[in-house]
Amino acid sequence: MHPIRAFAAAGRNRYSGNPGGAMARRGRGFTLLELVVVLFIIGVMFTFAVIAVGDGGRDRMIEQEARRMVALMDLARDEGILTAQETAVSFSRHGYTFLREFEVGERTYEWLPLEADRQLRERSLEDLGLELELRLEGIPVSLDRTLDNPAPHVYLGITGEITPFEVQVHGDRTRRPYFIIEGQPNGRIQMKRPEDRR
Q1: pLDDT band for position 161 (50/70/90)?
Q2: DSSP string across 166-183
């Protein structure tokens, strides 16, 4: 074979026909180390995204529960006015329930929870890691951990008047309140943020 043709043929074999050639090496793809680095970065970004969404979701749930408490107390007060039946609210460190007086014997009445009422049933906040602090007319009240033996704290009168109170909703690991729920003697109940009181 002519020397020039032999050299050209050798070049073709080197770059196009040989799997171990330079072009084959360039088309090999990512190395294992590169894949590990990419997966690590994706994992870190995903973790931060989950944390951000989770915190925002929890904050919304806490606000929803605080608003629910206000709405249910408004409902119980209004029902009491319409039915001429006084209602009371009993609080524990991790929840609350609504009570009414029931006749349990001859001329004997007791404040009992409204267990059959779908709206005014017991509400627990423990799953959200929340704790309640109660003040009645400015005086702190020691709350039980559970509602096993509920006693009335806030009375919702049949004339619309209520016991003045303040409930702070905060995490069970921090004393910083998320929300403050206040009840005025005239029956007005409202939710505030701590910064609203400054």
Answers
A1: very high
A2: EEEEEETT---EEEEEEE
All domains of the chain in start order, with CATH: 37-197 (3.55.40.10)
Cβ atoms of residues 32 and 130 within 8 Å? no
Burial class (CB in 10 A: 0-12, 13-18, 19+), 151: exposed
Those residues whose C-beta lies under 8 Å from the C-beta of residue 152, and which sit 6 or more positions away, are 88, 89, 90, 99, 111
Helices within the chain (DSSP H only): 3-12, 22-26, 32-83
Tokens matching residue 190? 């409202």
Query: Bridge-partner residues for 139, per DSSP?
Result: 136
Q: What DSSP character marks residue 99?
A: E
**What would the pLDDT profile of 16-71 be if each residue is shown by its tens digit?**
445 454 444 455 666 877 777 777 678 766 655 544 445 568 889 999 999 999 99
Distance CA 146, CA 133 (A): 13
**pLDDT at residue 144 greater than cutoff 80:** yes
Residue type at position 77: R
* Structural contact between residues 107 and 159, judged by C-beta atoms closer than 8 angstroms: no
CA distances 137 to 157, 183, 184, Å, are 16, 10, 9
Proportion of the chain in helix, strand, coil states, percent, rounded to 5: 40, 30, 30
